[in-house]
Design brief:
The structure is a single chain. By secondary structure, the protein is an alpha+beta fold. 19% of the residues lie in helices and 32% in strands. It is built from 2 helices and 6 strands. Strands 1-3-4 form a 3-stranded mixed β-sheet, with helices on one face.
């Protein structure tokens, strides 16, 4: 059995996932293991509040999307702004919908 993909998040974004306010995780394609080989529908993904072991939630990836422009995917502007603040502008994004 494949282990869940481990994704540490900043507190603000972890709670958005946990409370159901955020339905996807966006990272640059090919960034530290975030690639199609590892991120695919049906795989479990464990979100963690930082790297601690006490505040985690596991979800299943429902679908994925690779896109050059986040604005094409009907994502909330706050999410696009947050991702670009963390990673800067990129040529390819991999979005995992949960």
């Amino acid at each position: 059995m494949i282990k869940p993909l481990f994704v540490p998040l900043m507190k603000e974004y972890f709670y958005k996932i946990k409370l159901g306010e955020q339905d996807c995780e966006i990272r640059p394609n090919h960034h530290r293991g975030w690639r199609l080989k590892n991120v695919y529908p049906g795989r479990l993904i464990t979100f963690s509040n930082g790297y601690g072991k006490h505040d985690r939630v596991t979800k299943e990836i429902q679908r994925i999307m690779v896109t050059p422009d986040l604005k094409l995917e009907n994502l909330p502007q706050w999410h696009i702004d947050a991702v670009e603040k963390i990673y800067g502008k990129r040529d390819s994004w991999l979005i995992a919908y949960i």
